[in-house]
């Protein structure tokens, strides 16, 4: 094989060998250029299929919001006194009006020092960093008891009011189980605040002096200045409370939280006022359901528009993908316009998309099976359908008819979408099926080229292999041309030398 260092240009023949061979190679490269354009076209197609995949996935997410009965919670709750109670309706709420009286809010068991605590040095209001005990009097202990267990707190001469609060809040029983307390020392009021984490009348806090000369339990509960331990310790206690309400004439006094769900109405109790009656109204929330359905229809129409455009746009074969050499001969703007034309019709008359459009139209219009006679079975019955003689499959909404159906028959509207053969159920499945077909055809969006095992991916790899074979073949062809022209130049040069010799001899 002749390499570039052995090539002889037209020194003897006077020919522009470089240009001649470059022009010859343009013709030889034609099959490789066609393979490049084929690969480029298939790569564009793969990207176009993946874009459709993303469109279908986005639409499927919209459909998913209508697949379950909980998505059709067609009720809203209002409170006549939002200062006393906030309300919201669950899916099982029953329309109507209910009276609520809040006699007692649920409370934690809470101890707050009865008065400001004084330090043991100068009798002034204590700071968090002040020591609890009088120096030289030794340690003291007290017992803390809650409904979760019992613990003994040891107070040393090094303990401050802040560290004592930490010990109480982190107290555990003999088995290592938390007593379920929160505790802090407030410097503004110079007092302790201790409470259980849970509410209800079963919650309690008991403080009892155990050992030592100083009664820390009394100091925490009563405040003032630390006193000597009594001969007979006193237990200082606090209890939690249940919430007590009257709802729709029924007294309920076992609530251990200020949140409760009754008759499908979620209550948040804010203020106890036995003399005030809060009226709660449960009614149809047609706007929320209407918005979901309208969003679904709008998304469907947008997708249908896009897919119809893709399968109806013809390919312009006058604009083939540009080779590198062709692209270099154009300005950037000219190349962009060419690419735009060349990419038209990438999915023209595509079978997967056509089948998807046809099937979705049928799924939208067909009667929903499994629903009893006399109930809503078709989208047209709630004001959703296509315009007369429409050929594109897009839907129109009669808003008044849809809102009327939601207000009067919310359960039937829910079944129309969510039953086993419901509109949302079958549309979701059909779109999923189309997405899988697109995955097999072009791979999932953002799939790396090396991991792409789709039909188009395999075809692109096959063309890439063919291109590599052609590139190797073209190198051989180009070297052959150079070898032939070099041999010609050598022959002409030899002939010229012989001619010169003969002329010289004749001249003598």
UniProtKB/TrEMBL annotation:
Residues 240-497 form the Flagellar hook-associated protein 2 C-terminal domain. Keywords: Bacterial flagellum, Cell projection, Cilium, Coiled coil, Flagellum, Secreted. Residues 13-107 form the Flagellar hook-associated protein 2 N-terminal domain. It comes from the Bacteria. GO terms for biological process: bacterial-type flagellum-dependent cell motility; cell adhesion. InterPro entries: FliD, FliD_C, FliD_N. One of its GO terms (cellular component) is bacterial-type flagellum hook. It is found in: Secreted; Bacterial flagellum. Required for morphogenesis and for the elongation of the flagellar filament by facilitating polymerization of the flagellin monomers at the tip of growing filament. Forms a capping structure, which prevents flagellin subunits (transported through the central channel of the flagellum) from leaking out without polymerization at the distal end. Homopentamer. Belongs to the FliD family. This is Flagellar hook-associated protein 2. It comes from Cytobacillus praedii.
